[in-house]
Amino acid sequence: MNWLKHIRWDSKGLVPVIAQEQGSNDILMFAWMNREALQKTAELGQAVYFSRSRNKLWFKGEESGNVQTVHEIRMDCDNDVILLKVTQPAQVPDCADHAAQAIACHTGRHSCFFTVYENGEWKITEPVLKDPKTIYK
Questions:
Q1: CA distance to 94, 119, 122, 133, 135, per residue, from 59 (Å)
Q2: Rounded average pLDDT per 10-residue block, the chain, 137 residues
Q3: Which of 112, 116, 128, 135 matches a 20 to 30 Å C-alpha distance to 122?
Q4: The pTM is what?
Q5: Structural domain boundaries, residue 8
């Protein structure tokens, strides 16, 4: 576990994590990890985060099925941010409206970063691919 010592954990023992889709390089989501979550992510090859609201490990996809397979774990130059290169299974089939996409966001969208600031307003730029009520158990 010597590799975990190199990370600059915050005062709560957490580090911010960005999940980026391998291939498209889309930023899918932002979350937090504690030591155990990062260790399990490395061991399992699947994203495991730390839920601050539930104060427990959160295995991505445990309820939604939107599991993230981790291909690479990177650390930034200050050793205080982790980047995961991930893939997820497409949850929405190919159709005329959009290409087949995986759902990373709890809102049923491909990415959590679907709101863009333009001309003094926030605009939603990505459609809901699947109703969240049908995703979560």
A1: 27, 38, 31, 19, 15
A2: 93 98 95 98 98 95 90 96 92 55 88 93 93 81
A3: 135
A4: 0.85
A5: 2-135
